[in-house]
Amino acid sequence: MVFLWLVLTFIACAALSLLLCSAAMLLFPKFRSGEHKPGPRRADFLPGSGREVKTIELPLVGGPSLVLAIEAAGVGYGFIFKFSSYQWTLLVIGLGATFCFMGLGFVDDWHKVFSEEGLSQRTKFVGVFLVSAAVALFYFFSLSSGRLPYSPYIDLPILGPLLCPRGYKPALGYCQDYVMFGQVAYFLWLPILVLITGVIGSLTSLSVDFSDGLDGLSGGLVFSAALAFGIIITGNINSEHPEGIVLEVLSLLCAGGTLGYLPLNWPSSYAARRGSAKRRARIIMGDSGALALGGMLAMIAIFSRQEFLLLMVGAAFVLEGLSALISAKVLTPFFRNRLQVLRFTSMRTFIPHTEFPKPFLATPLHQHFDLLGWDRRRLVYGAWALGACFAILGVMVGTAPQTWERYLGRILVLIMAWLVWSSGSWTRKYFVGKHPAERTRRRRLALFYGYPYRVMGLPLFHLVEVIEASEDVIETPAEEYALWHRMNIYDARAMLGLYCYRAGYYPAALAQWTRIPRDNLALRPEIARLLEEVDERLALEKQATQPMRRDQILQQAIVGNVAPADLPNPHEPVHHEDKLDGNLDNWDGSLDKFARPNGDDLSLGLSPSQADGALAPEMGSTVPVSRKSSVHLAVSQPSVQKPWFARFLRFSPGRER
Q1: Residue 390 and residue 603: Cα distance in Å, rounded?
Q2: pLDDT digits over 42-56, tens only?
Q3: What three-state secondary structure class fits 300?
Q4: Model confidence at 227: pLDDT above 90
Q5: Residue 67's pLDDT is what?
Q6: CA 576 – CA 277 distance, rounded (Å)
Q7: What is the sign of the dihedral through the CA atoms of 94, 250, 186 and 310?
């Protein structure tokens, strides 16, 4: 009977959350963030572009709605099951902590909407820490279980005897007696509990907040983590543990509230300037929802004395938060003050942090893969699957009766976390090579990321794009040796643009070089000089088919029928519309336009600009053009069916599939 009521509570909370989120979406459609975070990572707004952030962001109403559903369902369940005073106290502390975390996040959202700038990182951290510490104080003084030290803290050599002067039973995992006022253990356990709750509560809530960067990402991860805790806690639902049923209710409420919110925040392939995919999400939870759900997970873990199990169940949040902490707060300041890049030592130019050897292109971790151009829907689905695997292993560790089973689960969690973390260093480097690699002549140059190897037929690289220039533009052995060597994206773009420039494909060279941010371009003065030269040359053209100038290319990226952007993403492939002023298909897919008169399906070795009669090298031009950039014919290659794993991870052209 109890199980049936728990299921009904879960369903009722999910239905109520969906209802409140839908109502809030209709009642507060203009409660949208106006905060702008500049930088090339922010791909949806640019000051002066004629658009406001509020026209792009979604309403920040998901968080308050799902939290209200959790609060109402929790109170209703307490009345239905006639909780005791002890259980009511624990339920009120858990729901009150969730509401306070939501309130802090709502203040941040309110500032984003009406002041166009949220709370600072320091203010937010201090706020969530104080809320967590206050919850610890209420838990300690209101409930006897809060005054009972437990493992692993009582297992420490010096701390253990002080916390448990009368000893403890290892089978129980906690002391035999509660700490009493006047004892050393009382004044020792109180600050330890406050510190543990403050650190775990603040880090968990902020990690969930970090993961709320793509539609549906944080919601799906919270759902799997909360459901995992619900399964683990079922073993403590008995008369000896009156808090077990309360913690089970809190876990199911967290999962149910998130499940009701997800249909209105479902992931899609929508991304700024990337195709015409329709965005399925209608609302977002904002900081109010992310901090509330993260804080609720932390409180469930602490009240059930499973905070270390939270590291395994919520390993996806650990990776998100740890990537942001290490990259932004540790490595970047260290590299800025202690690292000397010998390549730029002789230059008195500011070195942006993107030139440092950091483990990821951007943080939190999901932004690294989003920056690579991965399809957002598949990225979120993959993150959900990863979070579900962590949750299953966490359940295995929390419920396994044998010690070796628990250690096996922990080892598997560490291996999976290491694989995900190391994928950043694997994918952050690029290289320029020849495509296809198997042929021996008439190959074009291409951009890849990863490692230039195959292991048992499985490629360790991903093809980003193929440029117009062929291998004939390579003139020196040094240039030949530079191929297939890993480098950062800016050196790769500079190299590709140079080869397009040398072959006479000036719009293609312009499209490559304009992907390099201004600070990074200043560290490559030769490329900057060539860029200005090509820009001036294109400005002199007066034909009707004149290619776009550099300012027009940037303007197309920030106004028009596509979402505005700070700068073009240097990690995404250069699309055909970035090179020409027209709505044409991809240059390597428009072969029927250049079919030979006799019907042979051959494509000219021309750039699309030359094929449409655009700019070509003129006689007597002062712009150097390689003698090897002659036009040649290339037979169209049939498409090769890729393995299912490669098809799953490959870059989507932006259409909803």
Answers
A1: 49
A2: 444 444 444 444 556
A3: helix
A4: yes
A5: 97
A6: 18
A7: negative
What mean pLDDT comes out for the span 63-70?
A: 96
- Neighbouring C-beta atoms of residue 115, cutoff 10 Å: 11
Nearest to 312 by CA among 413, 180, 419: 413
DSSP 166-229: T-EETTTTEESS---TTSHHHHHHHHHHHHHHHHHHHHHHHHHHHHTTSTTHHHHHHHHHHHHH
- The torsion angle over the Cα atoms of residues 549, 552, 557 and 560, rounded to 10 degrees, is -150
Query: Under 8 Å CB-to-CB from 463, ≥6 apart: which residues?
Result: 435, 446, 447, 448
Which has the closest alpha carbon to 225: 244, 246, 207, 202? Answer: 207
Phi, psi at residue 284, to the nearest 5°? -130, 155
212: exposed, middle or buried (Cβ count in 10 Å: 0-12, 13-18, 19+): buried
275 vs 185: CA distance, rounded Å:
62
pLDDT digits (tens, 9 = 90+) for 387-416: 999 999 999 999 988 889 999 999 999 999
Residue 309's nearest CA partner among 154, 174, 177, 204 is 204
User: What does the block give as tokens for 452?
Assistant: 């230039």
Task: Please name every residue paired with 431 in a beta bridge, in sequence order, or none if there are none.
Answer: 448
Q: How deeply is 11 buried, as exposed, middle or buried, from its count of CB atoms within 10 A (0-12, 13-18, 19+)?
A: middle
Burial 134-145 (b: 16+ CB within 10 A, else e): bbbeebbeebeb
Q: CA-to-CA distance for 515 and 526, rounded, in angstroms?
A: 16
Produce one character per residue of 455-473: b if its CB has 16 or more CB atoms within 10 Å, e if not. Answer: eeeebebbbbbbbbbbbbb
* Band (164; pLDDT cuts 50, 70, 90): confident
Identity (one letter) of the amino acid at 220?
A: G
Token duo for residue 376: 């957002």
Checking phi first, is residue 82 left (phi over 0); if not, alpha (psi -120 to 50) or beta? left
Identify any residues that bridge with 59 across adjacent strands, giving them in sequence order.
Answer: 32
Q: Which residue has the tokens 């590291």?
A: 311
**From CA 473, how far away is CA 491, in angstroms rounded?**
17
At residue 477, does pLDDT exceed 80?
yes
Return the amino acid letter for 610: Q
Burial of 200 (0-12, 13-18, 19+ CB in 10 A): buried
Mean of all residue pLDDT scores within the chain: 81
CA contacts within 13 A on the Cβ side of 599: 0
Can you say whether the dihedral through the CA atoms of 330, 333, 338, 342 is positive or negative? Answer: positive
Structural domain boundaries in the chain: 2-39+47-269+279-342, 430-649
Cis bond upstream, residue 568 (ω within 30) = no
Overall average pLDDT of the 159-172 stretch: 78
Sheet holding 458-470, edge to edge: 430-435, 444-455, 458-470
pLDDT of 18 strictly over 60: yes
> Would you state the structure tokens that stand for residue 178, as one six-digit string?
């509660």
Answer whether 0.85 is exceeded by the pTM: no
Higher pLDDT, 612 or 428: 428
